[in-house]
Description:
By secondary structure, the protein is an all-alpha fold. It has one domain: Amino acid/polyamine transporter I (Up-down Bundle). 67% of the residues lie in helices and 2% in strands. The strands form two sheets. A two-stranded antiparallel sheet has the order 1-2. A two-stranded antiparallel ribbon has the order 3-4. The longest helix is centred in the first third of the chain and has 36 residues, at 99-134. The relative contact order is 0.21.
Amino acid sequence: MLFQRVxxxxxxxxxxxxxxxxxxxxxxxxxxxxxxAVIGTGxxxxxxxxxxxxxPGMMYSFVIxxxxxxxxxxxxxxxxxxxxxxxxxxxxxxxxxxxxVAWMVGWALVLEYAVAAGAVAVGWSGYANGFLVNHGIGLPxxxxxxxxxxxxxxxxxxVHMVDGxxxxxxxxxxxxxxxxxxxxxxxxxxxxxxxxxxxxxMIKIIALTAFVALTLPVVxxxxxxxxxxxxxxxxxxxxxxxxxxxxxxxxxxGFDAVSTAAEETKNPNRNIPIGLxxxxxxxxxxxxxxxxxxxxxxxxxxxxxxxxxxEPLAFVLRAIGHPxxxxxxxxxxxxxxxxxxxxxxxxxxRILFTMARDGLLPSALTKVHPKHHTxxxxxxxxxxxxxxxxxxxxxxILADISNAGTLxxxxxxxxxxxxxxxxxxxxxxPFKTPMVWIVGPLSLAGCVxxxxxxxxxxxxxxxxxxxxxxxxxxxxxARRRSNLxxxxxxxx
Length: 492
């Protein structure tokens, strides 16, 4: 049953041609979309989370997460160039591992994209409200964080009471409104979204470059001691270098969103690998320099001031005597982080669009706007769901849950690429993963290590519940409505 209903690659390409999206994106557009999806909450916000888990050792966490993503990007590039259609890991799994596995991958990608979009919106709201607070017009706690937000004190205790005042979130209004605004922009058109994203990417790069230029000259080696206050960590612990790497992995998530745009890409066989590898390479260089600057300039011990900040990069610049530029970096985050929300929602809608085209979801989700040529129905549904995710949950929980879905999808892509090397060795491969029998197993091992480093409660527990729910939906609804189900083959 597990490997039943495999949809051949040629059939996938044929189906895509019947109900295709307009090809309008080039290599530069894809690279900018990739950078736009990657550089965001991970570096602007989760740096504080990583500091609380690993201290200065978070630098190693960035390296570990970056290596796993680099290996995965090489695997992704091969199959994305072979199958340049929407759907990302879901589509690739359908071609190799069968419908049920593909459904579970698509189900897991909801955690990657929709939940990630909510996480970034929450991170953005922290910077936005921080700016408003500094000018005396900040929103009350009830409207600036969700009901599951809690305050973490320096001794590690988690409470709702700080300085005698109960801190309890209610509804993150800023994150909610941002998600709806981004959804509206996506409905307006892919090419317009790409142009906006390119502009926002340049703002983020300028901000991070300024941060590096100001922090590197004031690095103090004393700030690196102790380097590993919580050690390397162990699987399921969720702390230490490995725990921080599992969280900071979110900083790299998004490069695979480039592959979801394959069906809207000109010359995808060439441009998809350029977008995937190019965007990840640029982001990795920035991350390593920024993490070194954060630790060396301000210190990053667990429970310290940095680990409690909702806007850590701006906090570091203010701490070393550059409050104006710190505010400017905060502004850059406020202006530019919406591009990440945009790419996450973009990726989610294209996956759901493809699943609906395969009959696994309602056909209404495949409707394309007659004027804007975008899948507007699924975009609005996704945007509304993301808005409520963002309004109700804190950024750290959302990020870790998103990582669980991402790592599962990355794992299946790696397996699929290696299986295709054996089953279809003569199929044209515009991009071939170098040393695939070394890169592939290392990619799989890295995904497994980071997955279990997320910690059992609540992340892995939630993922398991989500997976069981997905299986129930598949067998009760999707399996019998699939285009490959007996009697439905004519729709395929």
